[in-house]
Description:
Blueprint: H1 4-19, H2 23-30, H3 42-58, H4 65-76, H5 80-92, H6 100-136, E1 141-143, H7 146-149, E2 155-159, E3 162-170, E4 184-189, H8 194-202, H9 209-222, E5 223-225, E6 231-233, H10 235-242, H11 248-262
Parallel strand pairs: 3-4
Antiparallel strand pairs: 1-2, 2-3, 5-6
Helix pairs in contact: 1-6, 3-4, 6-10, 8-9
Amino acid sequence: MNNALDYCKFRDKFRQFLETIDLNRYREEFKDKKYVEQDLPDDVVNIILNSLYENYLEKKKFLSFDTWFEEVWDKLVDLKEFNEFLWYYWHERLGKDENWDKWFKEGLKARLYRTWTAVLTQFDFTYTIICVIEEKRYNFSISASSKLNKKGIDLRLSISDHDIDFQVYKISERKEAREIRKGIVRVPYPVISRKELIKKINSPYVRKKIVYENVLKIFDKYYEELDNGFIVFKKELAEEILKRLPLIQELERFVEELANCLRGKECMLLELKVYLD
């Protein structure tokens, strides 16, 4: 494993890359697109996940979304399982249309953009954890791979032959979001932006401003909103997580309370000076 300086440099470079993503542009581009919602064949999923992990985590090759998608598409069009899937769902079901392959590609691109941004968020958590582990010289082995991702595991830390698995999740995930697996520590990720929180606090139409003020305090302690709106993890959150290990129950209580705070519920973390100044 590289030293702390290297991993923190990788984290900084990754953050610089995240700041270049034009979230508003993609939001406009895909807002009216018909998504490809059907379950993708395993071989297709493998190509997509392998490409993400190989480029952004292993090789530190931070491709733009359009470049990454075209790279993946070029691999998929040569895959027998992908072409069978494409033909069955979009030719046989939708009828013969000279543009049916074009609509399919656009729909898949819209879907993979959601996958891309979600996995980049997971990678930011991974880079942050690794940076703090190396800085603090924690004795953890680290694993992150497409194989683990398919099991719902974004990051695995191992100590004394004991594995601690993590999954990053959005507070307001849809019903079809990733499966909740027993034994995985779920780390919450806020959907509401800092700008939106401040807007609600300053609004004359919001009565319970204290709710959003508390959420903002937690947000500012553990998360950061980049200039383009991408929300990332602060080292302080990684430190809170790592110092509780290997006490899993204590860690699970912390992330559960953190999720409650971000949801605007009673925030016990605000009453404990050990967490917030």
